[in-house]
Amino acid sequence: MITEYAHRGTGVDIHASAEIGKAFVIDHGTGIVIGSSTKIGNSVKIYQGVTLGSIYVNKKLANKKRHPTIEDQITIYSGATIFWGIQ
Question: Fewest CB within 10 angstroms: 23, 45, 59, 70, which?
């Protein structure tokens, strides 16, 4: 419920299981989606409209990592969609 409240107010949807490093910056947050098994390193900056998501996964494999890992000191600019996953 808290996640939905925050999403409604900010336009940012970060799954509670995502791992986020130090000095993480969201600039103009509207439309940002960060999936459950995403790992974000230190000093990462993300602009509006970014999706760090997954492709379709067979439900038998749902407990496997299926979202991207973003290394340290990366900037992801507006409108980027980064998918990672297993099929």
Answer: 59
Angle, vertex CA 34, rays to CA 81 and CA 42, nearest 5: 100
For the chain, the farthest-separated pair of C-alpha atoms sits apart, in whole angstroms, at 36
Domain that holds residue 35: 2-84
Q: Give 38: exposed, middle or buried? Use CB within 10 Å, 0-12, 13-18, 19+.
A: buried
CATH of the domain at 73: 2.160.10.10
Query: Residues 30, 46, 16, 23: what is their CA dihedral angle, to the nearest 10 degrees?
Result: -130
Residue 60, sorted as left (phi over 0), alpha (psi -120 to 50) or beta, turns out to be: alpha
Q: Which amino acid is at 85?
A: G
